[in-house]
TrEMBL record:
<feature type="binding site">
    <location>
        <position position="570"/>
    </location>
    <ligand>
        <name>L-homocysteine</name>
    </ligand>
</feature>
<dbReference type="InterPro" id="IPR002629">
    <property type="entry name" value="Met_Synth_C/arc"/>
</dbReference>
<feature type="binding site">
    <location>
        <begin position="402"/>
        <end position="404"/>
    </location>
    <ligand>
        <name>L-homocysteine</name>
    </ligand>
</feature>
<feature type="binding site">
    <location>
        <position position="636"/>
    </location>
    <ligand>
        <name>Zn(2+)</name>
    </ligand>
</feature>
<feature type="binding site">
    <location>
        <position position="612"/>
    </location>
    <ligand>
        <name>Zn(2+)</name>
    </ligand>
</feature>
<feature type="binding site">
    <location>
        <begin position="486"/>
        <end position="487"/>
    </location>
    <ligand>
        <name>5-methyltetrahydropteroyltri-L-glutamate</name>
    </ligand>
</feature>
<comment type="function">
    <text>Catalyzes the transfer of a methyl group from 5-methyltetrahydrofolate to homocysteine resulting in methionine formation.</text>
</comment>
<dbReference type="GO" id="GO:0008270">
    <property type="term" value="F:zinc ion binding"/>
</dbReference>
<feature type="binding site">
    <location>
        <position position="118"/>
    </location>
    <ligand>
        <name>5-methyltetrahydropteroyltri-L-glutamate</name>
    </ligand>
</feature>
<keyword id="KW-0479">Metal-binding</keyword>
<keyword id="KW-0862">Zinc</keyword>
<feature type="binding site">
    <location>
        <position position="614"/>
    </location>
    <ligand>
        <name>Zn(2+)</name>
    </ligand>
</feature>
<keyword id="KW-0677">Repeat</keyword>
<feature type="binding site">
    <location>
        <position position="532"/>
    </location>
    <ligand>
        <name>5-methyltetrahydropteroyltri-L-glutamate</name>
    </ligand>
</feature>
<dbReference type="InterPro" id="IPR006276">
    <property type="entry name" value="Cobalamin-indep_Met_synthase"/>
</dbReference>
<feature type="binding site">
    <location>
        <begin position="402"/>
        <end position="404"/>
    </location>
    <ligand>
        <name>L-methionine</name>
    </ligand>
</feature>
<feature type="domain" description="Cobalamin-independent methionine synthase MetE C-terminal/archaeal">
    <location>
        <begin position="397"/>
        <end position="717"/>
    </location>
</feature>
Length: 725
């Protein structure tokens, strides 16, 4: 191949794709609901891409990425690119969304967390008989679309090693590396024929503990792709951490450029980069704080001393941050001055690229001493179980849900009207009470055993608490994609956290007054509140989590004092925050479990504590989950085919492996639920098995929920009758 042109001075590894006003969400949901066509959806996507490229060029960015847009998920896009579509989806009306969301007769592919972020990806199925076949229409189409605007772009594609490692078979899928590389070679040749100068292959798996087999795969992949006769220049980007032992392996291959995360990773080993172009990720794509210029300049100077050419870039894709601070007029001006969302981060990249990188060395960072871990223990589980059985009187296989019920359009409109000042608070409260009663009556009618109030007063399971705790700020338009059309607004945790007063007691007390069945008080755990916020960086993360744990402990005590018999403290992000390197995992699990136990330590033995985890490979940290010492743990299981059941042999408390995948619109049949329950009973004694959905029901409709729960209850009753007989 010919030598690629010099890489421009500034770039980003990716950009948000949902639209500044969540335009993609609305387009997707219109298509799914039958209110628009696939052609109209594709047109909405094309318009979003065009606006993004034009805006990045207007901001002065020199190297624009393409193929970072997705209608649902970029890992799913890569499976389609490589032809890795399981045969059972090929006859669906729209195979892409059938894999993502399922159909009435077809379950979707598994979904889980993307590294240590709150983004969810669709897990590819790669088997020995997967017939890979390249379909380069999407990356080529985006190159041509940008070129029609007069803009040249750099296609971004998930790299072959990461793609295989993220598949259902994990490291075992590396046995298909040769076949996958053949597709990547053809892709590179087609892009070269299109006149593309550079291609970015994202390999975040390289910042994990690969081991000898993984490192050998990296060497094989990039020796082979780097040696391809016809290809553009290759940039291999490794976000979310330090390349470590993979850096010299990658640097020894013929790839021309390497992207380093210099926010979460360090500068060790940069001497191996001689002769390479380095995209130096000095602007963070994972937080909302302005980049300290002295720190960035120091990193750039250090890399410049070794690399052939240095490009200023972001540490990872800006997918994980909101669009624009200018869209947040309600934030305190002093806080706004400290913030940088995607647009501001692009401006920082451009400014740094135009600067000389001279100046004083950054002051040595002071490391605050970690605060002592506060004690927090409850009575032994056997004592608690007896007290709770006497108080609650539940049947075998008790049926419950995770917490939220469908959020209706009327309720969302009412919440917006309160925020706009056009609906009085008392009138809104009456609407919330009516919605709580609707949820409670539906559960009674369906025959659930432990009820929830449905959370109609909550916009989001983290934001709601942030709005009631000191130390947080919330945004108006700070949306970030979680998966597909699902977006969240992560709060900004910028100061010391405390609880001015009770948060959930009023609604829990009201719900319990409507029924003689137990109703759960619903709280979000300290790790999850912190994980799903943008967090201050001047304290150890552990200390911030314990501040939140103290606030949740006070709420638990107030709920118990109000007579709430069951309190659920969710920790779906427990697995998510697990460090990517094994050496740091034990310390994290120790303090995160301690924080949860502190948060729940105020509850007496007769108060049943539940927790919940979802879509995060919880089977990998089951010992830590057991260590949370919750009386009942509910986990996602239906979408992942019950994989957690193979790991629960030593779990010593109540466990509810989900039997209803709520992230798909399909309604599970009674026979399907019964089959899942029978599988669970092979792994768990009936006295400790709970029956529940995979996750909260907020995103579903009442019609879907009531049909699904009716099937769940009917299947459970059939099994109860067998157990009693």
């Amino acid at each position: 191949m010919s030598t690629p042109p010099a890489f421009p001075a500034s770039t980003v590894l990716g950009y948000p794709r949902i639209g500044p006003r969540r335009e993609l969400k609305r387009a997707l949901e219109a298509y799914w609901d039958g209110r628009s066509t696939r052609e109209e959806l594709d047109l909405a996507g094309a318009e979003l891409r065009e606006r993004t490229w034009l805006r990045l060029a207007e901001l002065g960015l020199e190297a624009l990425p393409s193929n970072t847009f997705s209608l649902y998920d970029h890992v799913l896009d890569t499976a389609v690119l490589l032809g890795a579509v399981p045969k059972r989806y090929l006859d669906a009306a729209d195979p892409y969304f059938a894999m993502a969301r399922g159909t009435d007769g077809l379950a979707p592919l598994r979904m889980t967390k993307w590294f240590d972020t709150n983004y969810h990806y669709i897990v590819p199925e790669i088997g020995p008989d997967t017939a890979f076949a390249l379909d380069a229409a999407k990356p080529l189409g985006e190159v041509r679309q940008a070129r029609a605007l007069g803009l040249e772009t750099r296609p971004v594609v998930l790299g072959p090693v990461t793609f295989l490692l993220l598949s259902e078979r994990g490291a075992a899928a590396l046995d298909r590396l040769g076949d996958v590389l053949a597709c990547y070679e053809r892709l590179l040749a087609e892009l070269a024929a299109e006149g593309v100068a550079w291609v970015q292959l994202d390999e975040p798996a390289l910042v994990t503990d690969l081991g000898p087999a993984g490192l050998a795969a990296v060497r094989e992949a990039y020796e082979r792709l780097g040696g391809a006769a016809e290809r553009p220049g290759l940039l291999v980007a490794a976000p979310y951490g330090d390349l470590g032992e993979a850096l010299p392996v990658l640097a020894a291959t013929p790839v021309e450029a390497i992207g380093l995360d210099l926010v979460r990773g360090g500068l060790d080993g940069v001497a191996a980069l001689a002769g390479k172009t380095v995209v130096a990720g000095v602007v963070s794509g994972r937080d909302v704080w302005r980049t300290p210029p002295e720190r960035a300049a120091h990193a750039l100077r250090t890399v410049r001393a070794h690399a052939a050419h240095v490009v200023v870039g972001t540490s990872c894709s800006l997918l994980h941050v909101p669009y624009d601070v200018a869209a947040e007029p309600d934030l305190d001006p002093a806080l706004r001055a400290r913030l940088a969302f995607a647009e501001q981060k692009v401006a920082e990249v451009v400014e740094l690229a135009r600067s000389s990188w001279d100046g004083p060395e950054p002051a040595a960072a002071s490391v605050p001493l970690a605060a002592p871990v506060p004690a927090g223990e409850r009575a032994p589980y056997a004592v608690r179980a007896a007290a709770q059985a006497e108080r609650l009187g539940l049947p075998p296989l008790p049926v419950t849900t995770i917490g939220s019920f469908p959020q209706t359009g009327e309720l969302r409109a009412a919440r917006a009207a309160v925020a706009a000042g056009t609906l009085p608070e008392p009138e809104y409260d009456r609407l919330v009470e009516a919605e709580i009663e609707r949820a409670v009556r539906a559960q009674e009618r369906l025959g659930l055993d432990v009820l929830v109030h449905g959370e109609p007063e909550r916009n989001d399971m983290v934001q709601y608490f942030a709005e009631h705790l000191d130390g947080f700020a919330v945004t108006r338009n700070g949306w970030v994609q979680s998966y597909g059309s699902r977006c969240t607004r992560p709060p900004i945790l910028h100061g010391d956290v405390s609880r001015p007063g009770a948060i959930t007691v009023r609604w829990a007390r009201f719900a319990q007054s409507l029924t003689d069945r137990p109703v759960k008080g619903m709280l979000t755990g300290p790790v999850t509140i912190v994980a799903w916020s943008f967090v201050r960086d001047d304290l150890p993360l552990r200390d911030v989590v314990f501040q939140v744990a103290e606030a949740i402990r006070e709420e638990v005590s107030d709920l118990e004092a109000a007579g709430v018999p069951v309190i659920q403290v969710d920790e779906p992000a427990l697995r998510e925050l697990l460090p990517l390197r094994r050496a740091a995992q034990a310390d994290y699990l120790e303090w995160s479990v301690a924080a949860y136990r502190r948060a729940t330590s105020g509850a007496g033995p007769a108060t049943q504590i539940h927790t919940h985890l979802c879509y995060s490979d919880a089977d990998q940290i089951l010992a830590a989950i057991d260590g949370l010492d919750a009386d009942v743990t509910t986990v996602e299981s239906a979408r992942s085919g019950g994989r957690i059941l193979g790991a629960v042999g030593g779990f010593g408390r109540g466990l509810g492996p989900g039997v209803y995948d709520i992230h798909s619109p399909r309604v599970p049949g009674g026979e399907e639920v019964e089959r899942l329950l029978r599988e669970a009973l092979k792994a768990l004694p009936a006295g400790r098995l709970w029956v529940n959905p995979d996750c909260g029901l907020k995103t579903r409709t009442y019609a879907q929920v009531e049909a699904a729960l009716a099937n769940v209850v009917a299947a459970t009753r059939r099994l109860r009758e067998e157990l009693i007989a």
